[in-house]
Amino acid sequence: MNCQEVHDEGPPAWREADCFEQSACKQRTAGLPVSEGAPAALPREPRVVSSKINALVDEIANLSLLEVSDLNWALKKRLNIPDAPMMSPGMIMAAMPAAAAEDVPQKKTFKVTLAKFDDTKKIFVETAPCTMKEDMSKAEAYELAALLTKAGGTCEIA
């Protein structure tokens, strides 16, 4: 069974997909090496381009911005290249603080401190401020703070 027969047996999505296995099969049947192999050596002398390419570069460099936009559109259409959204430097900078905020670990334990209390209420504390409880979950800390506030105290959660 050859590579094409294997791909033809699968569901339609496999047959239509331009997957790695298909391209490897095509390379094998075309006699091309499948593995990457050793990287090619970098050229030692400067790259020489043809006069045709130099003429194209000169012509493109002399185009107006509207003509460059038209050229860009025409090349994308001819070469079937999809439009890719480009991020402006401002958008990149705006995205950076959001990423930095995601890296900050969220606090997992809290402590409740009684900052002050009403002397007329019966709270079994001699002085304030004092730490009432530490290493609590956020929900537990807010629950304890609500109870102390109801009893006449002023709490801080840290």
TrEMBL record:
What the entry lists under Pfam families is as follows: Ribosomal_L12 (PF00542), Ribosomal_L12_N (PF16320)
Q: Which superkingdom does the taxonomy of this entry point to?
A: Eukaryota
Alphabetized InterPro entries for the sequence: Ribosomal_bL12, Ribosomal_bL12_C, Ribosomal_bL12_C/ClpS-like, Ribosomal_bL12_oligo, Ribosomal_bL12_oligo_N_sf
- Signal sequence span is none
Q: Which UniProt keywords apply?
A: Ribonucleoprotein, Ribosomal protein
Task: Tell me the Gene3D superfamilies matching this sequence.
Answer: 3.30.1390.10, Single helix bin
The Swiss-Prot or TrEMBL record annotates one GO molecular function as: mRNA binding
Q: Name one GO cellular component term.
A: mitochondrial large ribosomal subunit
- This chain belongs to the protein called Ribosomal protein
Q: Which organism is it from?
A: Pristionchus pacificus
